[in-house]
Structure formats: C-alpha cells, structure tokens
Design brief:
single chain, 357 residues, mainly alpha, Farnesyl Diphosphate Synthase, two-stranded antiparallel sheet, 62% helix, Terpene_cyclase-like_2, lyase, terpene synthase activity, magnesium
C-alpha cells in the first residue's frame, strides 16, 4: 500500500496491459527542454524546473514507445506547453475561478492553433503553440491536424466547465464528472497525439465507429481517474478540497475519504475491465492503421499509470535520469470490481451496449 500524508491508503493500480518506453527518451527530453528555452514558455527558472519536473518526455515515451523520435518529440512539445498553460491559467492564477475571462483566452488559444496568421503578440502562450502547430502541419496530414484541433477545442471547453464549477462552488455528481472530467484533464488532445506521434491515420469509417469511440473514451477516463489518484498522492493537502473522483464520491455518495478511495478504485477498474473485454472484438476486424491506434490506447493507459507512479511527488525532488534503470512497480493482481453491468451513470452507460460487440 502507498500512504499519503493524509493517512489514506491508495491500493495498487490494476493494469494487466504491457508497458514499454521509447529508447530515445533521454534525447527527446533534451531536445524538448531546448525548445522550451527557445520559446520561453516559462516565466522564470522556478517555472522551468516545474515544467521539466513533470517529465513530459517520459510520459510521451511511454504513450508512444514505438513511434519515431521526431513524432514523440512533437507530442512532448505540446505536453510541456500544456503543462505550463494549465498551471498558469487553468489550475492556478487569476483565471482559475473566472470562467468568462478564461473563455475569452480559450478562444484566442484555439484560434492560434488553427490559424497560422492569427495575431499572437498579446499572450505569451500563443507563439509557442503556433510554433508547435507549424511543426504539426509540416509533419502530419490535414486530417491528423484537424482531429487534433477538434480534440484541443474539447479540452478547452472542459476547462471552462471546471473553472465554472470552481467559481460557483459546484461539485458535480458522478455522472457529470465521468462525462466531463476527461475533457478538462486533457484527455482528448493527449490521446489525439497518438496519431500525431505515430504518423498513422485511421480511415474515418473505422475511426468514427461507435465501438472505437467507446474504447477511446474508456481509455481516456481510466487515465483521468489514475491522474486523480496521482494528484492525491503528490498533493494530499489539496486532495479533499479540489474537484476529483474522491471528492465527487464523498459528496455524491456521502462517503468517508477512505471509502471514497475504495469506491473510486471499483469505478475505475470496472471501466478498464469493460475496455479489455471489448478490445478483442474491435481488433478482430481492424485494419492496420486502426490496430496501431488501438495499441496506442493500451500504451496510453499503461504508460500514464507508470508515468504517474514514477514522476516526482514534488517539483523540488531530483528525478533519476530519463534513461536510468527503473525499479519494478507493484500492481494489483485483479480488478477491485469486474461487474459486467453498466455503471449507474447514464452519460457513459452506452460503453456497455451489446451492439458495440
């Protein structure tokens, strides 16, 4: 068991998917840090340490372990940029409880991604994002770029929801949280980076199949719930006052903190169990591009879990070098809940539809 400073036990994560890491992770991190320095995404040395301490290159190296180096680097540039933007404008700072002000900034940000000639002189985060967008358009197809832009807009809409909740002291119930949290947590653009990193383009007729969308949403949601766990582990003092799966369940189900941890584990494992049951059915009829995408979903879930368990708990901690040998992690041998019926959350119950099979 892992103990937080609040005394809450966090059980080991259940994830029977195989893990891997890109062998060029150290060089990718070096090049990403050089880009951050050129673009001046951060304000000062403290912010620089913070963003590099998130180990975004390591995260991407686990997400897309078999992509080429340039593809993983491209993904890492956005992940580092988004970390800086999120910390300054979404989770903290003067906009973090001002949805109307953040919405105006979100419009500027999205237009900077989509329009090469958008004026970016007024906001420090826009020039680096435009540099990323230029690289993406040079390296990847219009379809891949459009899919990423669509996912990026979904993320910003989710952040508006999250900031609006904070401004109104609104705690969502479980159904609302499962529908929206993956958006606010960057799930859509991060998983859209799978195709950006690998350079593959799944045909629309396969990419937009309901079963593929269900698998994508489930992978995002499992990763998001794991991130809630990682955040509770790294920032236990904020764990009870913020908006996460534990505080949602404490309010929605009237649970004590320890009971909320156990219930959150059951919710998360039940979703992953459904993902693993549906995956072989979709793989059976998948073309080569879709098979690469589905493998990416699996690496995304496992890689996110491994990254979260290994990233330093505090930015001041000195992490081991990116290429260093890693100690084995403890994993749960079985799911906390393998119930095959849908979760009692109407917005996601369709993941269990028999028609998907």
């Amino acid at each position: 068991m892992v103990m937080t400073a609040t005394g809450i036990e966090l059980p080991p994560i259940w994830c029977p998917l195989a893990g891997a890491r890109h062998p060029r992770v150290e060089e990718i991190e070096r090049r990403a840090a050089a880009w951050l320095d050129r673009q001046r995404v951060y304000r000062d040395e403290s912010e620089r340490r913070m963003v590099l301490g998130t180990r975004g290159a390591d995260f991407c190296a686990r997400f897309t372990p078999y992509a080429d180096e340039e593809g993983v680097l491209l993904a890492a540039l956005w992940v580092y940029w988004a970390c800086c933007f999120d910390d300054a404008c979404c989770g903290h700072g003067p906009l973090s409880a001002a949805p109307e002000r953040f919405a105006r900034l979100a419009g500027q940000v999205q237009r900077a991604l989509e329009a090469p000639t958008a004026d970016s002189s007024a906001e420090r985060f826009l020039p680096p994002l435009q540099d990323f967008a230029r690289r993406m358009r040079r390296m990847r197809s219009p379809v891949q770029a459009a899919r990423f832009a669509h996912a990026h807009r979904a993320w910003l809409s989710g952040v508006v929801w999250q900031i609006g909740n904070r401004a109104e002291s609104h705690m969502p119930d479980l159904d609302e949280y499962l529908a929206m949290r993956r958006l606010a947590a960057r799930g859509e653009p991060v998983f859209a980076l799978l195709e950006i990193a690998t350079g593959t383009e799944t045909p629309d007729r396969e990419f937009h199949r309901p079963a593929v969308r269900a698998l994508t949403e489930m992978a995002m949601t499992v990763a998001t719930l794991d991130n809630d766990r990682h955040s509770l582990h790294r920032e236990p003092a904020a764990g009870h006052s913020g908006q996460n799966i534990y505080t949602v369940l404490m309010r929605d189900r009237n649970l004590a903190p320890a009971d909320a941890v156990q219930e959150a584990t059951r919710v998360r494992d039940r979703i992953l169990a459904r993902f693993l049951r549906l995956l072989p059915t979709v793989l059976a009829g998948a073309g080569p591009e879709l098979r690469i995408y589905l493998a990416g979903l699996c690496h995304g879930v496992r890689g996110n879990a491994e990254w979260g368990l290994r990233v330093p708990r505090r930015p001041a901690e000195t992490p081991p070098p990116p290429g260093a040998a890693e100690e084995p992690l403890e994993w749960a041998p079985s799911p906390a809940d393998d119930d095959r019926t849908p979760l009692p959350a109407p917005s996601v119950a369709w993941w269990w539809d028999r028609a998907l099979e």
